[in-house]
């Protein structure tokens, strides 16, 4: 592959990741069966972009508004930028695992676009938790934690998609072609290693020794949610990726708000 072709392909993969994870307008990318699995390597970098937007907004608002109001507007901005992608995954996952008693029932509930009691409660707590935790972060470090939080929460997709297969099988209909199946067990070793080194290095540069706890909580959440998904449904779905993403974001903010 020539350098020019490699650069064009890399740029296309980054734009595909940005297009998938956000509502930021980008040039439309041609569909390829493996385009999303190749773009996963840029998920943490997209997290830096999303977190950077939130950090810039907070820096503009913080001098003029109470902290809770500024945090609310930051979360509102994040929801608009991402198009509620991960929030939807959290709500569906809470409904599926909260209301389903076996694999088939869980997967059936996950396919249902309606939000039930478990999903509504999980979504409300997630939004409220993010507002409260962002408002509780040390003011000089809010921007840093926003960037690190959105980077590390998207990093969790890399190990989950590397180790876990799709929870759905080809015999279960068109859902096999869902977004989760496009990356489950299709992330390369190079993507996992490269994305991990990038994410942990950026976190260490921004938070110094304070990066240890956010990195550890992200690893622990990816590990335990992955084991839980594997035990309950035999793999992972797109909604599961979103749910772990939301939990990791909350976990990183909690580390920043925690006082010794």
UniProtKB/TrEMBL annotation:
InterPro entries: CobS. The keyword Membrane applies. Its main location: membrane. Keywords: Cell membrane, Cobalamin biosynthesis, Magnesium, Membrane, Transferase, Transmembrane, Transmembrane helix. It is a multi-pass membrane protein. Its EC number is 2.7.8.26. It comes from the Bacteria. One of its GO terms (cellular component) is plasma membrane. GO terms for biological process: cobalamin biosynthetic process. GO terms for molecular function: adenosylcobinamide-GDP ribazoletransferase activity; cobalamin 5'-phosphate synthase activity. Belongs to the CobS family. Joins adenosylcobinamide-GDP and alpha-ribazole to generate adenosylcobalamin (Ado-cobalamin). Also synthesizes adenosylcobalamin 5'-phosphate from adenosylcobinamide-GDP and alpha-ribazole 5'-phosphate. This is Adenosylcobinamide-GDP ribazoletransferase. It comes from Granulicella mallensis (strain ATCC BAA-1857 / DSM 23137 / MP5ACTX8).
């Amino acid at each position: 592959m020539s350098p020019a072709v490699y650069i064009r392909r890399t740029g296309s993969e980054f734009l595909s990741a940005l297009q998938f994870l956000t509502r930021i307008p980008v040039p439309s990318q041609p569909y390829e069966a493996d385009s999303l699995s190749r773009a996963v390597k840029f998920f943490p970098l997209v997290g830096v972009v999303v977190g950077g937007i939130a950090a810039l907004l907070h820096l503009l608002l913080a001098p003029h508004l109470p902290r809770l109001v500024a945090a609310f507007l930051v979360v509102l901005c994040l929801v608009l930028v991402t198009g509620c992608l991960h929030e939807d995954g959290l709500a569906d996952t809470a409904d599926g695992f909260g209301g389903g008693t076996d694999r088939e029932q869980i997967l059936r509930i996950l396919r249902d676009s309606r939000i039930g009691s478990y999903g509504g409660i999980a979504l409300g707590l997630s939004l409220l938790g993010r507002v409260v935790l962002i408002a509780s972060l040390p003011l000089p470090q809010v921007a840093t934690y926003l960037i690190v939080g959105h980077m590390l929460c998207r990093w969790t997709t890399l190990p989950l998609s590397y180790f876990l297969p799709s929870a759905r099988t080809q015999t279960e209909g068109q859902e096999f072609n869902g977004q989760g199946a496009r990356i489950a067990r299709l992330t390369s070793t190079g993507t996992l290693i490269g994305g991990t080194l990038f994410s942990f290095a950026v976190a260490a540069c921004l938070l110094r020794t304070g990066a240890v706890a956010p990195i550890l909580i992200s690893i622990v959440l990816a590990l335990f949610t992955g084991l839980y998904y594997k035990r309950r449904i035999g793999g992972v779905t797109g909604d599961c990726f979103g749910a772990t993403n939301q939990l990791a974001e909350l976990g990183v903010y909690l580390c920043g708000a925690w006082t010794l």
